Structures are given as C-alpha cells and as structure tokens.
Task: inverse folding
C-alpha cells in the first residue's frame, strides 16, 4: 500500500538500488528513489516486513492511503453528479483528474458538490471554495 506524506508525496516500499533489502521510499522529481528514514522503518529482508513497518509508521503519523485520497476525487460519488448530462459528466471527470494532479495536499480540496449553472459547471470543494469549470476543463 502507498501513502501520501505530509509534503504530498507518495511513500511506498521498494528495494533500494543495488540492494537486496526493502525499505520505504519517495520518488524525486527526476524519478530517482529517496529513502524515508525513521527508526520505525529500518531496511527489511522482505517486502512484507517493510510494508508492515510502513503501515505502522503511516498510521502513527496520520497519513492517508493513496487509494483513499483518490476516492475523494471520484466524480461519480460527488453530490449532483447524477443530475448532469453525459457531456457535463465527462467534463467533470476530466476536471477531477486534472484538479487532483495539481495539489500538493489534494484531500483538503476534494469536490463535494457539482451543478450546471448557465454556461459553466460550478464545483464546491471541501474547504468551502467554489469554482467555475469551463467547457475547456479550465477553472477559476
């Protein structure tokens, strides 16, 4: 299982480069691996042991699983989604994917309501902010 850390980065179990042991890592912007060091997460001889260490560390630090955060951006469960026409549903799905990818801490900005208003979609976010979504999947 992967987690989102407090910096918005995914933390996951992998083998270190040239190593036989497993540990917890983040990916750098360049795609390299950076080890997440903690006394709770020593390098381990098996993937299962390293995952157990990561799970305990994540729980202790209040981290959310990547799947849990991504579910917050599932367009089909947002209030008002079922009232949209097919074109607006597709637009909103594209928005959710694009919007999720721009946030460092996406769970704080998850969409909670969507509706058609005149010539745009209006999305209300978890933090109370609302946005216009244009037909080109831009927002303001």
Result:
């Amino acid at each position: 299982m992967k987690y989102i850390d407090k910096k918005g980065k995914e933390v996951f179990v992998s083998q270190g480069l040239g190593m036989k042991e497993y540990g917890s890592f983040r990916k750098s912007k360049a795609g390299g691996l950076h080890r997440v060091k903690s006394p709770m997460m020593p390098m381990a001889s098996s993937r299962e042991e390293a995952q157990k260490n990561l799970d305990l560390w994540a729980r202790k630090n209040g981290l959310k699983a990547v799947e849990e955060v991504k579910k917050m951006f599932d367009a089909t469960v947002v209030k008002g989604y079922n009232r949209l026409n097919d074109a607006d549903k597709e637009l909103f799905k594209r928005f959710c994917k694009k919007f999720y990818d721009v946030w460092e801490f996406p769970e704080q900005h998850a969409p909670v309501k969507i509706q058609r208003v005149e010539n745009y979609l209006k999305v209300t976010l978890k933090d109370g902010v609302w946005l216009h979504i244009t037909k080109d999947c831009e927002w303001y």
